[in-house]
Amino acid sequence: MSNEGRKKNRYGEGTIFWDTRRSKFVGRLSFGFRPDGRRDVRVAEGASRAEVRREFRKIKDEYNAAIEPGKQYSIRQATLDWLRYGLKRQGKTTRDKYESLAKANIIPLLGAAKVKELRAEQVDEWLEVLAQDHATSTLRLLLSMLRRILRFAEARGKASRNVAMLVDSPDGKAGRPSKSMTREEAKKCLEASRGSWIHAYIALSVFTGVRTEEARPLQWKHVHLNPVAEQECSCGTAHRETSAPHVEVWRSVRNKAETKTPKSRRTIALPQQVVVILTAHKVRAELERESSGVVLSGDDYVFSTRVGSIRDAANVRRDLRKVIKEAGIRGHWTPREFRHTFVSLLSDEGAREELIADLVGHKRTSTTRTIYRHQIRPVITSGAEVLDKVIDQDF
Length: 395
Description:
By secondary structure, the chain is mainly alpha-helical. It folds into three domains: about 15-50, no CATH class; about 75-165, Orthogonal Bundle (DNA polymerase, domain 1); about 185-370, Orthogonal Bundle (hpI Integrase, Chain A). It contains 14 helices and six strands. The strands form two sheets. It has a three-stranded antiparallel sheet with strand order 1-2-3. The chain has a three-stranded antiparallel sheet with strand order 4-5-6, with helices on one face. Strand 1 and strand 2 (about 25-35) form a beta hairpin. Helix 2 runs antiparallel to helix 3. It is elongated. It starts with 14 loop residues before the first strand and ends with a helix.
């Protein structure tokens, strides 16, 4: 066996020899020196010299493509590296979310697979397993994460291709559709929350349509309940003329306090009822501060915790559940559905889609129409009323 193919290799083709201990042919291919001064030698094995030469060709292709040698780099290690180094521009909330999803769904089911050996059918099988318990939106997010993980590995020479780009996510488990409250339900919710901090939060959300991520970090300097008496706006512009009470939705809990989209940065006039509720809420906040020997400032959060920090989303959901139960409203509700309620109430009163889209910060009216607007009237009568007028005139 050791006499097979005695033809001498030319310079740069590597060295192939029979390894008695391993009982196979072993090849060594040199690529010069590494940055640390050591020789860069790649090793290949095979049952014959021809098989080793084929491995040499693969190694050369990987070297020319700047791909690291070996097949030991796993999906688990790639995921951990991506979580550590690939999310530098993301906020803490987003990083925590990705880490939780990866450690629950990617590492346990795909972690043992090698990045270079991962196949598209394996990704398909992984998604089919997840589809039994996850919503379609979650499946799309997980596939997007895997694509980003493999792209991260590609950029660092750990993989030669991104097989996740060849796969589409399937439909998942049907999730609970969003809904909106009726006028009566919103009124019950406000009545049940009187005396609590969340009363003002619900009023602002229902009657202005702000996102929960925009309401939670809202500061008093961005809320103008009596603009006539104020000397200067938070933006630095002096108020010389009478203006309506308004709230400046300029920041959120996202990374660097940016709003979801540039159009989401907006200034919204406040209905009189909301002004009354927020004024009472501010008076209570001032009294609480005075009892602690502190003066309420513009930098204080409107819906702060007892220690003055931003309320956590889970904290808001917990207090909302208590209000929903107290109000006797059926079903499961989340803070984001107050935004749906705002859109639906305005639409029910005949407001134009363009106006509603501007108020909630939507770039397209189609988003307002297809996702946020819900029918809250038992019967839509406007069409019949118009037709009655046409019939009376022409028939």
